[in-house]
TrEMBL record:
Transmembrane segments: none annotated. It holds the Pfam family TP_methylase. NCBIfam families: cobA_cysG_Cterm (TIGR01469), PRK06136.1 (NF004790). Belongs to the precorrin methyltransferase family. This is uroporphyrinogen-III C-methyltransferase. Residues 11-220 form the Tetrapyrrole methylase domain. GO terms for biological process: methylation. One of its GO terms (molecular function) is uroporphyrin-III C-methyltransferase activity. It comes from Sphingobium lignivorans. SUPFAM superfamilies: Tetrapyrrole methylase (SSF53790). Keywords: Methyltransferase, Porphyrin biosynthesis, S-adenosyl-L-methionine, Transferase.
Amino acid sequence: MANLVPSRPGTVYLVGAGPGDPELLTLRAARLIGSARLIVHDGLVDPAILALAPATAELISVAKQRSRHSMKQDAINSLLVAEALGGRDVVRLKGGDPFIFGRGGEEQDACREAGVPCEVVPGISAAIGGGASARLPLTHRDDASIVSFVAGQCKGLSGQNWSGLAGAGRTLVIYMGLATAQDIAEKLMADGLSPHTPVAIIENATRPGQRVLRTLLADLGDLVARAGVRSPGLIVVGEVALRADAVDCLMRTQPDSLGAMQP
């Protein structure tokens, strides 16, 4: 008997799972997860969110970690397209929002090129969710009217031009920057940012193990090391960091630095 060819391809749903807390899923995301037959998910998707899937759903992890990927991005693209062309709907589940450092744009491009329907379901981004859970306003009329998001580990960190992204009236949010925190601090100070600029680190945002630590820019790399900060984590640079519910962790060796930590 000849193989049956699906009359139409399935749909790939690029779904934002938010920063971690299942309560922060959109209604659309929760419905898609709850009825999914196939979920392709990142490593940062909280297990409590995956538990919302039916017991019969097939779950495929394509977790990425620094310098070690369980599946390369091209292979992920091919997997999504192949499953959809085989007639299956695919829930591609990503931490945060699919289009903010989630490679959702690349996966959408692959679907378009293959003629596969693709729907994007936005999620609360790590920056938005992390800021809110730390009581850290990314904008504030007294402190910041500009917010920039950057990736702390990607193609050629040293070659990226960050000048002007942080400073008076600005907030800089750095994703995936824990492993390069010392380099980031040196880069920003070399661009003229004061070493006394307040910095907050939000670890495990919105999850039970959340920690919010605060220091000054010059101490950023040392803080990550001595506090054992682990991914996932966000680095927030700017005066708004002083408004966070955070533990002040500045190494108190420079008395003139202490005043800079006072809100």
